[in-house]
Amino acid sequence: MEHPENAAEYKGLTVNSGVAQPSIINPYLKRQRVRRRELSVDEMVEGILRGDVTVLSQAVTLVESANPTHYQKAQEVIERCLPHSGHSIRIGISGVPGAGKSTSIDQFGCHVLDRSGGKLAVLAIDPSSERTKGSILGDKTRMEKLSVRPDSFIRPSPTAGSLGGVARKTRETIILCEAAGFDKIFVETVGVGQSETACHSMVDFFLLIQVAGTGDELQGIKRGIMEISDGIVINKCDGNNVDRCQMAATNFRNALHFFPMPESGWTPKVLCYSGFYGTGVKEVWDMIYQYIDFVKQNGYFDYRRNEQSKYWMYESINEILRNSFYHNSEIEPLLGEEERRVLRGEKTSFAAARDLLDRYFLTMGKRDEL
Fold first, then answer.
1. Distances from the Cα of 70 to the Cαs of 61, 82, 247, in angstroms?
2. What is the C-alpha to C-alpha distance for residues 254 and 274, in angstroms, rounded to an integer?
3. Between the CA of residue 339 and those of 328, 350, 352, 357, 361, what are the distances in Å?
4. Which of 221, 176, 170, 175 is CA-nearest to residue 196?
5. Tens digit of pLDDT for each residue in 253-284?
């Protein structure tokens, strides 16, 4: 590095050149990327049935993968784990952002594990950014006590654009967790409001977490998520907020009278609790166990499980058809062309969609003839 102070006109002033800065990377460090050996289907199934959470995590990653080559292997693992599933209580937990879902799950999970033992799996669904398509996956940081327990398994997953705040592969993940010996499953949604029906279609009890002061009585009688809830709890019932929570609970109880009786025959209850202080958690779980006993006695528990299986069969058909269309070799190059025509105003969106579908069905018909 040259210094102007060392020029001839600056007599008597000399600046040393200094010492060259070393590289921030250790030149003696030989980094060798250790590639993890890919487990076979037999090894993966054996590890899951053994309760190995490391193997379970790899299997969930395989299920969530968008790589078409992973699909067949993931389905084989799920099929072999299916006979060992179905022996858990599945709880769906939803609520508006900031209602304290993750903090409540931390309290609920520790309470139920201390009370009845067993193993708990928490499937936390984080919203994906519409701009960057990324997710923070930070729900686990709010579950401080539950995340360090050896009898719990917390798996955050991105929504990846799926509707209803639930990842498309959450149901398959539930099967893997049940096969691994987890007898309690929590599914936490992103809390997007009135589009939580996907979560309701995979759990036995749907719990809605509300907070006081979010609106008047009119908000409580709106259809949607209120109508499918099996229980409603008002969080943050502590300190100076107790009276407001009690008033909100009364409003919700009054609103529930406007709804028709659910198919289960169970009248949803409204309770108050504090997720931060852990007060009222026992009453919430007493309500959940009362519901489970109630629906098992009248046969609705098995009926709901069967209806959910049928629902997800049709959902799987829709997903496979959608993927088949967008990954068709003849359709893929036409998508961009039709899109440009729509943007230039040469063709309407509906006409472009109809032409693409006609071409797709024609392609599939020729393939069947061959």
1. 10, 18, 51
2. 22
3. 16, 11, 8, 14, 19
4. 170
5. 888 888 888 889 999 999 999 988 888 999 99
